[in-house]
Write a structure and sequence with these properties.
Number of strands: 44
Bound molecules: beta-D-glucopyranose, 1-deoxynojirimycin
Helix content: 25-40%
Strand content: 25-35%
Distance between the termini: 41 Å
Radius of gyration: 28 Å
Shape: globular
Length: 812
């Protein structure tokens, strides 16, 4: 069953039934000011950091779901309703939500009145702008009472939810003209406030929550709205809100637009006050003035649309597969931008208080984003590397506001350092900017400790080399990519965190075949980089370690039909035919096949066939099989999940592309394509009722074949799945690969594909690439021409900047 449809021309997903199986959300803003908005108007806003600068409240895990948001209430004299159906839940005559690129419109029709709310964050603006368009489609005059609503969060989203003895006494607001200012704590250490304005004189307002709702009413029945009269309440402590009351009279056929601005201001300490206890509103007024007419709002939206045209024009495809094209051209790239902005911090599954920016996550997210705005990727790489330690280890996460490493989660995830090599080389291949390697970058943000970024790559590489276990394989530390395979934790105390408790790493033999494969893949990238910049000795030194790792994997990592997953603390195999449960895992087989280890000896094909046989199912490839059915103290969190969920035999979508890429190494385009479609959201749209989450973005996990409800997805939006699928489809299936000195074309497709077309902007030139597959082949380029001239090999050399070039590729 579907709840809407794609509108590719407008780059929107159109939801036509508000009762989606889960709130289907969108993100507004892409630099400093952000909002999350659901298809019924739920969600919240924050400035840069969802924990420390939360502007409006939201109630996670509430009953009903998705409580709190930016609501409009309409009282038309007979009925009280909301354009988004919720929160009033008055049956609408029609409903439509359009989620687009960083904007959302929600339209409801009731009793002949159409109300459409547009929400977006204009470029370079610390505010969310909302335009409410009201239209009278009847032959009678309509007198409407419009109430807006947001609830302020007292800045720190964590303490806002717990420290009520203080919170209920601190709230302060100011009301001037049609603007409600939220200034809680402004007179002490905060130099910021928030505001909510409307571009019309208001006939009333409320800022005290209980006055607005009535103590025992929910979001669906605010007393003032039901009574049709605001109370002009001024909040003193308790829970400050902002609600404007505006009366609108519409003649038959008439329409009216109201513009609301929800903004954030920072003032320098000496400029905080206008007079005693009256805040300096200059900056707020300036922003409000930028959007005081509907025409100005429309112009700002047009600018945002043009911005997205530009971003999405860098890479476009035409394959004849509508569902594929819309993912690659629109939604997958959009999700990559969002994961780049938020890492794993704020979604409807991530509360915005628990996790900051992940070291490994952000490096991987970069790969799906770097072609859009390389300069932002550059800045991010430096931020990430600045949290590294001199021995190459690093904080697992950092806070976006302070950019400092997060002490609570600490370090010791031994895959982390290698991802910096991926992030940096992806950036240089895209941009050609080698100067980043000379950039001075500190350790642990210590001023004075700066070394070159290249040095950071060296210590990253060496961190693996310096932490090898008894089988010559990388020690896993707290965990490798799989956060839940906690081999040194041995936790039997439910009050401990699996992630941060590391009881026994001393003397541990816990080694990871996932890190081993990862090291070979990105170690080779490191070697290639060294050669390109003339560091031949370093390249040779690194190559020796890689060769040794390949040998160790073949010797100690092969189980006969697949690669084992790890060795545990005691040196016993994990993910081996000798194990009773979880005989095979996806990650090591993904990375070792991507690395092509044992390709000639048939190991790659065999491992991939075992994955197909044991891990593949209707909805994707599960992480391990058979699932753990009891708790193994020596394995940790992975065995705490019920079978079929999360890291215990869930379809953990992030790692499915590793197998797709492995299949392309083996040259089996048909398999790669089959796996791609299984988890690709546009291909599962038809089963939205089972799948539950948004059909336009990837989810972290789909319940696996052993789960209670196979095919049910969770944790949409913020997942490495976005970047990895984009990387797999564009660089390995379609095979358009940026390299240091040109664009390599190496498709690996299903044999029934007759060809496809790609337009790729790269280093200032535009390439119009036509790939033809006359013989139904899966891999291999027979010829390549640029503007009719034959080229040796399959790499298009860098062409003069500014030009457009026609490239024709014929497969074998
Ligand atoms: C999740 C990870 C998370 C970890 C720590 C795992 O279950 O899949 O995303 O990092 O738990 O909470
Ligand atoms: C999600 C985390 O963000 C990521 O870092 C991790 O690799 C996966 N979960 C697997 O546990």
């Amino acid at each position: 069953m579907k709840y809407g449809h794609f509108d590719d021309n407008r780059r929107e997903y159109v939801i036509t039934n508000p009762r989606t199986p889960w709130p289907w959300i969108n993100y507004l803003g892409n630099e400093d000011f952000f909002s999350l908005v659901s298809n019924t108007g739920g969600g919240y806003s924050f400035y840069k950091d969802a924990k420390f600068r939360r502007l409006t409240r939201y109630r996670y895990n509430n009953v009903p779901m998705d409580s709190g948001g930016k609501y409009f209430y309409i009282n038309d004299g007979e009925t009280v309703w909301s354009p988004g159906w919720k929160p009033c839940k008055t049956e609408l005559d029609s409903y439509e939500c359009r989620h687009g690129m960083n904007y959302t419109t929600i339209k409801g029709v009731k009793n002949g009145v159409e109300a459409e709310a547009l929400y977006f964050v204009p470029l370079k603006t610390w505010a969310e702008v909302q335009k409410l368009t009201l239209r009278n489609t009847t032959n009678e005059v309509k007198a409407l009472k419009i109430f807006s609503f947001v609830e302020w969060c007292l800045w720190n989203a964590a303490s806002d939810m717990e420290n009520f003895q203080r919170n209920f006494s601190t709230g302060e607001v100011e009301i001037e003209d049609s603007v409600i200012y939220h200034k809680t704590e402004y007179k002490e250490r905060r130099d910021h406030f928030a505001y909510y304005s409307v571009n019309e004189p208001m006939q009333g307002f409320d800022t005290d929550r209980e006055t607005f709702f009535g103590l025992y009413n929910g979001f669906d029945e605010p007393q003032t709205v039901l009574e049709g009269a605001p109370c002009n309440s001024e909040a003193h402590g308790w829970s400050p809100i902002a609600s404007h009351y505006v009366e609108v009279v519409l003649q038959p056929g008439e329409s009216k637009e109201l513009v609301y601005v929800l903004g954030y201001v920072e003032n320098a300490p000496e400029e905080k006050w206008e007079s005693k206890n009256i805040i300096n509103k200059t900056k707020a007024k300036a922003t409000i003035a930028r959007f005081d007419t509907a025409a100005k709002v429309d112009a700002a939206l047009a600018e945002l649309n043009a911005y997205w045209d530009n971003l999405l024009n860098v890479f476009t495809i035409k394959t004849g597969e509508e569902k594929l094209d819309r993912m690659v051209n629109i939604w997958n790239q959009y999700q990559c931008m969002i994961t780049f902005c938020f890492s794993r911090s704020a979604s409807f599954f991530e509360s915005g208080i628990g996790r900051g920016m992940g070291f490994r996550d952000s490096n991987q997210d970069l790969v799906g984003f770097v072609h859009q705005i390389p300069e932002r990727a550059r800045e991010r790489i430096i931020d990430i590397a600045s949290t590294q330690f001199p021995d190459g280890g690093c904080y697992h996460q950092y806070q976006p506001l302070t950019k400092k490493g997060n002490n609570e989660i600490g370090q010791g995830f031994n895959d982390d350092p290698m991802w910096l090599i991926l992030g940096t080389t992806a950036y240089i291949k895209e941009s050609g900017d080698f100067t980043i390697l000379d950039e001075p970058v500190p350790f642990d943000n210590e001023i004075g400790s700066e070394v070159s970024l290249f040095h950071h790559l060296t210590v990253s590489f060496d961190h693996v080399v310096n932490n090898l276990g008894p089988h010559g394989l990388p020690l896993s530390g707290r965990a490798d990519w799989n956060d839940c395979l906690n081999l040194n934790c041995f936790s039997n105390d439910p009050n401990e965190s699996f992630q941060t408790t590391e009881n026994k790493s001393e003397g541990s033999q816990a080694q990871s075949l996932m890190i081993a494969g990862l090291f070979v893949v990105y170690g080779r990238d490191y070697v290639e980089l060294c050669k390109v910049i003339g560091k031949t000795e370093e390249a040779a030194r690194a190559q020796q370690h890689i060769d040794a790792m390949v040998a160790a994997i073949k010797l100690n990592g092969w189980d006969g039909d697949w690669f084992i997953r790890a060795y545990d603390y005691f040196g016993n195999k994990i993910g081996s035919k000798d194990n009773e449960e979880s005989k095979i895992f996806i990650e090591s087989n993904g990375w070792c096949t991507m690395a092509g280890i044992g390709l000639e000896e048939g190991m790659v094909a065999k491992a991939l066939d075992s994955v197909k046989e044991r891990l593949d199912c209707e909805h994707g490839i599960v992480l391990n099989n058979p699932p753990f059915t009891k708790y193994y103290i020596e394995y940790g969190e992975i065995s705490s999940y019920p079978p079929g969920y999360k890291e215990n035999a869930g379809i953990f979508c992030h790692n499915n592309p590793w197998i797709m890429i492995g299949e392309t190494v083996q040259g089996r385009g048909d398999r790669a394509w089959e796996y791609f479609r299984k988890i690709c959201p546009s291909y599962t749209e038809e089963i939205s009722d089972l799948h539950k989450v948004e059909p336009y973005v990837y989810a972290q996990m789909i319940a696996g074949k052993d789960a209670f409800k196979p095919g049910e997805a969770k944790n949409s939006w913020l997942t490495g799945t976005a970047a990895w699928n984009y990387y797999a489809i564009t660089q390995y299936i379609l095979g358009i690969q940026p390299t240091y000195n040109g664009l390599r074309i190496e498709p690996c497709i299903a044999p029934e594909w007759k060809g496809f077309a790609v337009t790729r902007k790269f280093r200032g030139a535009t390439y119009q690439i036509e790939v033809k597959n006359p013989n139904g082949s899966m891999k291999g380029v027979a010829s390549l021409t640029v503007d009719g001239k034959a080229i040796e090999g399959n790499t298009i050399p860098l062409m003069p900047v500014g030009g457009t070039y026609k490239v024709e590729v014929v497969m074998n």
